[in-house]
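Re-run with default settings, no changes from the original entry. Doing this only to confirm the output is reproducible before filing.
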Amino acid sequence: MAETYTETTNQSWLSRIGNSIKGILFGIVVIPLMIILLWWNEGRAITTANSLKEGVAAVVSVSSDKLDPANDKKLIHVMGEARAASPVSDPEFGIRASALRLLRSEEIYQWVESKKSQTQEKLGGGEETITTYSYQKDWVSEPIKSADFKQTAEHANHGGLIAGDGEFVAEEVMLGNYLVPEKYVSRMGPPEKFSLIEDDLAGLTGRIKELASIQAGAFYFGETPDEPQIGDVRVSYEIVKAGTYSVLAAQVGNSFEDYATKAGDSISFVEAGSVSAGTMFKNAASANSMMTWLARFLGFLFMAFGFMAIMRPLSVLGSVIPFVGSIIGMSTGLISFVLAGTLSILVIAIAWIAVRPLLGITLLTLVIGGVIYSRKIAARNKPAIMSA
């Protein structure tokens, strides 16, 4: 059960005004950065889309059992059984496995601090914040510096990792008659759990061997596995087994390398199972679309935060009477999102107009509508802001 500690702090109206004025700098910086991000993202999306289109026209499907020198430097699609010539190993702990990849995950038992704050405006413009700090023990991937905790003495952490996380790739992986480069093997998956047994303790040496045991298929370094103590460590493994994989890349001799397109991107895809070239391109196009929309959303969102930061002093000024500050805050928030949406669409429209005029013109039309709408909102809320 988590332990908790509550702290109440107060901030004066003048202090809040000072902080909100400082926040204007955040808006001034973040808005241009988001414009750059949106512009870059549209260029990246177009380049990737054109590269994929070029790849679809150039790809040649070949058999994994036969190498054709005529395909050298060409973009090929090949499916086959990927197998390693020898086991892959982790020299740190002496673990070996018949697999393409071996992944080591190390965790340490530590105190973890989390906090939750609730802020309420007070009459006169001040602000009261109640912060609740929670402490509980958990397994984490890195040691936590308890000196930074609000309550340090009661929740002191100690100990460290033995070796940290690690990834090991088999030295020679063949896909039929093709030698798969290490960076391509690193993309093979998905991994599955690899359970250790008592015999694996024999591969340990030195001090760690004295503290080691097997718990739930993993190494456990501590005196009481059933009751973990702060500083205890556990090491678990996952493997990627030999199996059928599909590769889409340039053929170079008896191996692969990234295929450079004239459009600007390089192409190299690796997927588990027998996946057709058409499906691999569709998957890549879907990933490109997802990344494009994610960047658009983040650009829009942080741009809105930037506008809100610039207009924040207005709501703070009005917060002498809390409900007035809330009304102004809602109004400036709405205006911020409209401005961010309008500017985002404008940047995207300009980026696209050179390659897809119809889409660009459509987006510009939406921008004009957004500007008119935002002006109406601003005019409607002007009396409320002025009266504050």
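The longest helix spans residues 13-58. The mean pLDDT is 90.
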